[in-house]
Design goal:
Blueprint: H1 7-20, E1 26-32, H2 44-47, E2 52-58, H3 65-77, E3 82-84, H4 95-103, H5 105-113, E4 121-127, H6 133-141, E5 160-164, E6 167-170, E7 174-175, H7 183-192, H8 202-216, H9 218-224, H10 236-246, E8 250-251, E9 255-256, H11 258-270
Parallel strand pairs: 1-2, 1-4, 2-3, 4-6, 4-7
Antiparallel strand pairs: 5-6, 8-9
The structure holds guanosine-5'-diphosphate and magnesium ion.
């Protein structure tokens, strides 16, 4: 499969991060809980060197609860502050304040020693397209927070969203591109819908998904598509054929419409209708990849 990205957009977005990073104390990195590794950006460590960091495991409502916990443990072991959230419903957002304070302890301490009072923590929200940056900023900042506008010493035109006297966000999130050197990462991003579906082979993608579900979430798959004989289903094609029958996906002349069945299962998966599914687990030994 070939994935298409837009180098022009990527360069522009990266430049925006580079220009703003000097103004920032804290980088809040959103990742997708269904693919916490594939949805991280490899450049972020370099871009954010010396900054406090916080990872938000977003869309946790769509991901496997048990695996969410494994990822939280993993991040903790790596010494990375992380909070599990659902930006859409607001779940988990309250826990962010305490963790931000922990992540920025050094800055807070430094300010205190220098006698600097009331200098809020300035943060940028960053992440790959579609990970939920805007949703997060809207639900975390809410309507109550006024944009504070230009500030002396701050690049002209920058808007800050004041959450309270402790914390401010840059109103423009940093868009980062995922790493795409590996085929698996590309596939994971395609599965959650982070890429333009028009350029993807839907049946190939659905087959990959089904193969994974057969291995890891067999009961959920069986229940969603009323597969009483799930244990006899050994190949993705058998499952797709079953879905064609179950959902009446036929072309003219009773020919199975695999494309339609593929689109259907992809949509079910992305909307969480098959259940809460995570596509990747943290490395078992807890080491960084
Ligand atoms: N289920 C679920 N959907 C979410 C969550 N956060 C964001 N979304 C959805 O993900 C899509 C992309 O969100 P958006 O904020 O535009 O992403 P951005 O490109 O990073 O700004 C939207 O349809 C959101 O409603 C979440 O925690 N759970
Ligand atoms: Mg957005």
């Amino acid at each position: 499969m070939n994935y298409q990205w837009y180098p022009g957009h990527m360069t522009k977005a990266k430049r925006m991060m580079q220009e703003n990073i000097g103004l920032i104390d804290l980088v809040i990195e959103l990742v997708d809980a269904r693919i916490p590794s594939s949805s991280r950006n490899p450049d972020i460590d370099g871009l954010c060197a010396g900054k406090s960091r916080l990872v938000l495991l977003n869309k946790s409502d769509l991901a496997d609860e048990k695996v969410n916990r494994l990822w939280m443990e993993y991040f903790k072991k790596q010494g990375i502050y992380a909070v599990e959230i659902n930006a859409k419903s607001g779940q988990g957002l309250k826990a962010i304040y305490g963790t931000v304070r922990e992540a920025c302890r050094e800055k807070i301490e430094r300010d205190r020693k220098r006698g600097i009072k009331n200098r809020p923590i300035r943060a940028i929200v960053a992440g790959i397209p579609n990970v939920g940056k805007s949703t997060f900023i809207n639900s975390f900042a809410g309507k109550a927070c006024a944009k504070t506008g230009n500030k002396p010493g701050v690049t002209k035109g920058k808007q800050w969203i004041r959450l309270n006297k402790e914390l401010e966000f840059l109103d423009t999130p940093g868009i980062l591109w995922p790493k795409f050197e590996s085929k698996e990462v590309g596939r994971n991003l395609a599965l959650i819908g982070s890429m333009n579906d028009e350029i993807l082979q839907m049946t190939e993608l659905a087959s990959d998904l089904i193969a994974y579900l057969l291995q890891n979430y067999r009961a959920q798959l069986a229940s969603r598509y009323r597969m009483e004989n799930v244990d006899d289903m050994t190949t993705p094609l058998m499952v797709l054929t079953h879905i064609c029958e179950d959902r009446k996906c036929y072309r003219k002349g009773q020919e199975a419409d695999y494309e339609k069945a593929s689109a259907l299962i992809m949509d079910d998966f992305r909307s969480g209708r098959i259940g809460r599914i995570t596509l990747e687990r943290p490395p078992a030994d807890g080491s960084a990849e």
